[in-house]
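Query structure, 131 tokens:
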């Protein structure tokens, strides 16, 4: 195996430019040429495809992870649709209450329309809070 100087892995614009220059090479050859490989004790080169592909995704500005608002967990996002459950209840999920800044214990007055439900938030004295 020929000795060649290992380059630091490319990132950002340098990475995307180099990948485009390498044209018809395989993914593994592109990853190696961009510095995404290690050499084992036995002198065998191992291409790190996961690091290469993640760096390429980052360089292209593609956002795969959702923003987590400091909550530590992603969870589902609000769809603004709910269904009546088999027991007849309507459950408004935490995504909505968090978005509205509601806290445990907040109270509401419920007004029913023909096909809608209106919630009016109450203060500690049971008076409606005006918006």
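Result returned for the query:
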């Amino acid at each position: 195996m020929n000795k060649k100087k290992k380059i630091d892995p490319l990132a950002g614009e340098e990475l995307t430019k180099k990948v485009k220059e390498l044209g018809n090479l395989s993914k593994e050859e592109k990853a190696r040429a961009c510095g995404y490989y290690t050499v084992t004790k036995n002198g065998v080169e191992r291409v790190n495809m996961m690091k290469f592909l993640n760096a390429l995704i980052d360089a292209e500005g593609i956002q795969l992870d959702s923003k987590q608002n400091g909550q530590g967990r992603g969870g589902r996002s609000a769809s603004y649709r709910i269904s009546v459950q088999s027991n007849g209840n309507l459950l408004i999920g935490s995504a909505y209450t968090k978005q509205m800044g509601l806290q445990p214990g907040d109270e509401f007055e419920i007004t029913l329309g023909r096909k809608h439900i209106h919630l009016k938030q109450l203060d500690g004295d049971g008076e409606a809070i005006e918006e």
